[in-house]
Amino acid sequence: MRKFTKNGKHLLGGTLLGAVNGLFGGGGGMVAVPLLERTLPAKEAHATAIAAVLPATLLSGVVYAFTGRAPLFALVPVSLGVSLGGFFGAKLLPLLPVRVANFLFGLLMLAAGIGMVL
To answer: Cα separation of 112 and 118, whole Å?
Structure first.
């Protein structure tokens, strides 16, 4: 079998991220960061993951909103909060040392995993 090129691997990884994001309503970034860290420095992997997950999140959100699965009374304020948090998080990431960013990301993944199990 022919080896995938780097672009082929990124396309396959992107498809996986989109599926995870669409199925679980998020979480694509948690899959993307470890995959991207194989080819990018940690901070670039975090930033690229968020930028790459954005289109999938928007598309999934539109599908959920237009099929009535996302009630507007909750969608609008949550979207505003997420946008503000995303803006400030993007401003904070370059200021954090790589070890701190990776540690915080690991804690987030651990908390999410424990929360899902419980």
So the answer is: 10
